[in-house]
Amino acid sequence: MYRFAGFEFDRLRAELRGPDGKAIKLRPKTFDMLALFAANAGRIISKQELMEAVWPNVHVGEDSLFQCIRELRTALGDDQRQMIKLVSGRGYMFDVEMLAEPAAVETPAALPLAALSGEPARAVAAAEPVERRRLFGLHGPAALAAMAGLGAIVGLAVAAPIFGPDVIFGRAPPTIAVMPIAGVGSDSQVAETAANVTTRLVDGLAKIYNIRVMTQTAPQPASPLATQPDFVVNGELAKGERSWELRARMTRTATGEVVWTVPVAVSFKDSDLEEPDLGMQRSRLAAGLGHPLALRINALLEPGARSAATVGRSPGNARVAIEQAIASINQTTRERFATAQAMLEKALAEEPNNADLQVALAALQMRGIQMVWYGPDDAAAAEKNAKAMLERAVRTRPSSIPVLEAYCRFLNATNEFVESLVVCARTLAFDPWNGMALYHIGLGQLPLGRFEDALATFKQANRFDTPPVSRWTWLLGAGVSYLMMGRDEEALPWLQRSIAITPASGRPLVLLAAAYQRLGRTDEAQAALTQGLKLRPGSTVSNIGIPTKNVSAAYMEARGRIEQALIAAGLPAH
Question: How many C-beta atoms surround the C-beta of residue 471 within 10 A?
Answer without folding.
Answer: 21
